[in-house]
Amino acid sequence: MRLIKQLTLAALFGAASLAASAAPNPLSVHVLDQQSGQPGAGIEVTLEQRKGTEWIQLASGVTNGQGRIPALYPEGKAMAAGDYRIVFRTGEHFARTEQASFFPRIPVEFTVDAPAQHYHIPLLLSPFGYSTYRGN
């Protein structure tokens, strides 16, 4: 009986440490094409961090079929406080859909002041305008 309790405790502690090591990625994005009402799939997105007067690329990805990149921050690294920029490369999206557009790239700058929180940056897109906000 004592061995069963020890094995049960070991399994619980193992599961807890595994869950702790699989912390969710601190940054996600979502693109929605407002004109079509469809997800902005296949849009290249880059993440940069300001270092002094320069922007250093940290990661890049392409939005999935739902217009999302659920984990844009480099895997295994803790997000630091500071200034960041996400660049949505929307020109290629509109070229694929044979639509004229005004914004070939949309840079969104934001400040991380609470690195332990999750940051979600949605982009509501149309050929001649866009909006964004901090989501959850």
UniProtKB/TrEMBL annotation:
Tell me the ranges covered by the Transthyretin/hydroxyisourate hydrolase domain, including all copies: 22-136
Look up the domain of life of the source.
Bacteria
Give the catalytic activity.
Answer: 5-hydroxyisourate + H2O = 5-hydroxy-2-oxo-4-ureido-2,5-dihydro-1H-imidazole-5-carboxylate + H(+)
Q: Which InterPro entries match?
A: Hydroxyisourate_hydrolase, Thyroxine_BS, Transthyretin/HIU_hydrolase, Transthyretin/HIU_hydrolase_d, Transthyretin/HIU_hydrolase_sf, Transthyretin_CS
* SMART domains registered for this protein in UniProt: TR_THY (SM00095)
Q: Name one GO molecular function term.
A: hydroxyisourate hydrolase activity
EC code: 3.5.2.17
Question: Which Pfam families does the record cross-reference, listed alphabetically?
Answer: Transthyretin (PF00576)
- Is Hydrolase among the key words of this record? yes
Keyword flag Ligase:
no
Q: Which UniProt keywords apply?
A: Hydrolase, Purine metabolism, Signal
Subunit structure comment from the entry: Homotetramer.
What the record says about family reads: Belongs to the transthyretin family. 5-hydroxyisourate hydrolase subfamily.
What does this protein do, in the record's words? Answer: Catalyzes the hydrolysis of 5-hydroxyisourate (HIU) to 2-oxo-4-hydroxy-4-carboxy-5-ureidoimidazoline (OHCU).
Listed name of the protein: 5-hydroxyisourate hydrolase
Q: Could you tell me which species this protein originates from?
A: Massilia agri
Taxonomic lineage per UniProt? Bacteria, Pseudomonadati, Pseudomonadota, Betaproteobacteria, Burkholderiales
The record's gene field reads uraH
